Amino acid sequence: MPLLPTLYLRPNLARLGGQLSCALLLFANAAHAQAPTVTGVSPTRNARSAPRTTNVAATFSQALGNTAATQGALKVFSQQAGGKKAGTATVNGNTLSFDPSTDFTAGETVYATITAAAQSTGGTMVTPHVFQFTTAVSPSSGAFDGGSEVAITGSGFEFNTLQKLGDVDGDGDLDLLAVSTGNTIGIRLNNGSGTFSGSQAVPVSPSPYNLEIGDLDADGDLDLISVGWNSTTNTSSISVRLNNAGTFSAGQEFVASTYVREVAIGDVDGDGDLDLVTDNIVLINNGSASFSNGAPTTLPFSSYRLELADVDNDGDLDLLGANYYDDEVGVRLNNGRGIFSGTQVVVTGGAPFGFSTGDIDGDGDLDFVTTGAAWDPGLHICINDGVGNFRRAPNILVNSSFILPALHDIDGDGDLDLVGAGGDASIVRTYLNNGAGTFGGGTSAAMGSVVSNITLGDVDGDGDLDVIGRGQTASVRLNQAAAFTAAPLAPTRNARSASRNTDVTVAFTQTPSNTPATQQALRVFSQQAGGKKAGTATVSGNTLAFNPTTDFKAGETVFATVTTAGQSSTGQSLTRNEVFQFTAATNPSPGLFTAGSVVPTGTNPGTVAFGDVDGDGDLDLATSNNNNTGTVSIRLNNGNATFSGGSEVAVGILPRQVAFGDVDGDGDLDLLTVNVGFTINYSPSTVSVRLNNGSGTFGAGSEVTVGPQFGVGTGKAIFLGDIDGDSDLDFVATSNVGGTVAVCRNNGNGTFVAGRIMVGNVADSAVLGDVDNDGDLDLLVSEPPGGRVYVLLNDGDGNFGSYSQIVGVAGPGFSTATGITLGDVDADGDLDLVAIGSQTVSIRRNEGGTFYDGQQVAVDGQPNTVALADVDGDGDLDLLATTANSTVSVRLNNGSGTFSGNQNVSGGAYIALGDLDNNGTVDFSFPNAANAAVAIRLNNQVLATVPAQLAEQVNLYPNPAHQAVQLRLPADLARRSVQLRVVNTLGQVVLEQNLAGQTAQEIQLPKLAAGVYNVQLGTSQGTVNKRLLVN
């Protein structure tokens, strides 16, 4: 540990011994009485969006004396305008209120202190109390643009605060203060619209590298404090400069015998003035900006960033320091008198030198976020338990250009978002908070040069937060108007059972324009029929609805994109693209499969895909024939799940997987294969693109290189989706040499620009889906060795950074093209992960974009591939897995993500799903390489469906139930007897009765184990399924 610094003060402070003796006598005389304590504050402690016009109040455990001393005991400090606020204080019973003369500025953090000068009606002094809140900002896009470049020369270390915003001249707007050359702080005055001018330079100690502002002398304006390093004397200096109508005069100088990295400002002793805290020592303010040595801070060595915040909610400011060399944040708790103690360290990783505190998850206490160095470029979120203990939340993986994070409400939705910059990039990047501490989406803003520092404030007076990035100049970027965004309304995002004749509807945050551009901004892509769907778009109120000309296919997953071509009625373009997906409903069935036709194909078929390639309304099939000839067999459906005709389409060598998608946007399904490619001439792996002429004939296309730039390729898997939100289908393809994943962007006409990223050591299967629900498609890649799945989040523009999570799955590995899939198995609105492991299938539940352990589903041997589909038509996604025993295990979902059953159907190594016989249920097929054929398995027992309006009137209550449950039926279903079956999660019938046709009757339940049961009611109009919870 370093020696504590010795501080030399110029001029010397007079000792306040006489005043201290008087204070001690006063405390002694009142010792017999219990001090009034704060029982509530307004705005609430750590509020994230307090009105800017708010009064500030504290309620006490005892009635207060209505004296001048008590009224003057509530001190309110603005960080950006007015310093110690002027205003009017009133006492009303137990409550002391303060009405500021001027409003607070948008998004600033305000500190308030109730000092011991306040007294009860009995004359007992209160216990001092400090709290903070953040003021509201106006709704905005959260996107930064425009602005100007402000000339300020000089630089500093990127982990230090180099600039601040504050109204130093008292004209109501925020001025800019910045570390500058010539041992000065440059002052640039705002003209009110975010344009800065002037050339004032305030002399400070040599080589300043840290800057803070605050009203140190309590005169209602903002003073400045800087820290510098004198290389001649090898000492740090702290300079205090007092404000006088925007002009700064000399103040105190502190010289430290050890290096001072940073200074923080706050009332640490609860006496109503702002003290200074360094990484080494506390400097106590006597009320007029004269300081004396306090206690050492006891922070770990190398605490580069400091924050004062009441993390244990006890009414005083605690101290946190980011320790760069030990990858941790030190937490030291305040005893209320400015003395810090404790030994807590929170391990964050990544050499933290970016650091910010705030109520990230909205639970009323202060959390923090740090960022690390280039070798660990993550946002490390640490959540407070309310008493100052912190736990690590999942990191947000970002690139090395995101350091020095700031927590601010940049879009005006009442929570704290993340803004950051620095490192080696000339950008400012934002991540939006969903209100509960999960971050996603956001935008990037270009700065004038590489930035090493940012500060935020409302520089143009429009009520939202703008950003200034510090590089070679100060780049001012203004927050744009309120966000104009779209989100899926119907079907909902990730819906599991959308009506096949549904319209696709999105809702806007503002009224959209009823123009062709807006009407065409919504594009809908069928994976199995029609590609980019034709239809009619209609604008009504705040919604845009698209009515497809043809219905969706049973069980297919549909993707939709809303592009930024959409405009509001005022001409504002959508802030960002929005991509979402849903699954079409299937008809109720037992979910039992029987043998169908056998379809001859080319030699050695490896994978199968279904799609209506000839536009006749039924699903045709394609197989990738894994041979040196390089062909795909197209076989046309006769409408009844028998196949004939078709063609052989030439593709690349050894096609590994085949897929359909409308890549040229002409309303039919084109064909793509990923090819191994190394047998002839050791060529890299490719993707063959073959375009459909609309009648199922595939001709013109291209070859896209997806393997390594040089050397052997081994293409593995392909998945199509609109990665960059521009309303055409891109694709990702894996080539497992060195973990290569090709990210190929569509030019809009079926030609592609290939890029590559590296994921793990072996990139096997890949899948796209919006796992964090932020409106873009994220990427998941499986790595067989060790059984890992890498999760890479999309930045909204089709760029995938470092992985955000590595998800472990059971078993030593998996190696097939479709070893992972996504779907909402537990009905919570997000996409869960299903992956094959060793002897089981692993369910990993999604919670806010992070995957957690779930069920291990037993299947009939080592699984090869896995798929999700609603095979029994009950509105949830069931599980199908091919196994090494040449079977397909079918496991039914109980609706909440628990799978059961023991149906095993003869099958093969790969599975494809679709409604082949047009009966509204999902069938499957598998290739039989030995016989050069595809075998069909039909789900052909369709149950009658009760009309939805009747099914909704069937009620079970109470639910949860115990010994009995009441059944209510609508009159139309009670005219005839009803067959009742209660089925457990294993698929076993535990109760079966024939009920008389009555609208209300009680059903006695046997002694059932607590759990979830499916109640099946067979009526004259079909089957109704209801879920029953037994406790």
UniProtKB/TrEMBL annotation:
Residues 34-135, 484-583 form the SbsA Ig-like domain. Residues 1-33 form the signal peptide. The keyword Signal applies. It holds the Pfam family FG-GAP_3. The keyword Amino-acid biosynthesis does not apply. InterPro entries: FG-GAP (IPR013517), Integrin_alpha_N (IPR028994), SbsA_Ig (IPR032812), Secre_tail (IPR026444). Keywords: Signal. Residues 956-1030 form the Secretion system C-terminal sorting domain. It comes from the Bacteria. PANTHER family: MAM DOMAIN-CONTAINING PROTEIN (PTHR46580:SF2), SENSOR KINASE-RELATED (PTHR46580). This is SbsA Ig-like domain-containing protein. It comes from Hymenobacter crusticola.
